Amino acid sequence: MSTTTLICVLVGMTAVTYGIRSLPLLLADRFTISDSVLHWMAYIPPAVLAALIAPSVFVPNAETHALNLDWANPLLLTALPTLLVAWRTKNMYATVGTGVVVLALLRLAGLN
């Protein structure tokens, strides 16, 4: 790939990426968003986070792609108290701290 082609590809990708992200911001004040849509949009970040985390928790071995719901799965054991803390406290720092501490304790106990 020539340097000119690489630069054109990078500039094009940058324009598309920032165009997609900035266009709603530029047009946001021209539209009013209903309360029901705003309420619905509040569920998007947790849904995206769950979609990113769930494969790692339930399928920890990427080579076999096997569902692992065994109690010896340290990521599943970490997710359970972390979800409980997230639900009860709604505090990001407490949630992340719980996940880190629980996983570290499980790894220290020899559960890999």
TrEMBL record:
<feature type="transmembrane region" description="Helical">
    <location>
        <begin position="40"/>
        <end position="59"/>
    </location>
</feature>
<feature type="transmembrane region" description="Helical">
    <location>
        <begin position="6"/>
        <end position="28"/>
    </location>
</feature>
<protein>
    <submittedName>
        <fullName>AzlD domain-containing protein</fullName>
    </submittedName>
</protein>
<dbReference type="InterPro" id="IPR008407">
    <property type="entry name" value="Brnchd-chn_aa_trnsp_AzlD"/>
</dbReference>
<keyword id="KW-0812">Transmembrane</keyword>
<keyword id="KW-1133">Transmembrane helix</keyword>
<keyword id="KW-0472">Membrane</keyword>
<dbReference type="Pfam" id="PF05437">
    <property type="entry name" value="AzlD"/>
</dbReference>
<feature type="transmembrane region" description="Helical">
    <location>
        <begin position="71"/>
        <end position="87"/>
    </location>
</feature>
<feature type="transmembrane region" description="Helical">
    <location>
        <begin position="92"/>
        <end position="110"/>
    </location>
</feature>
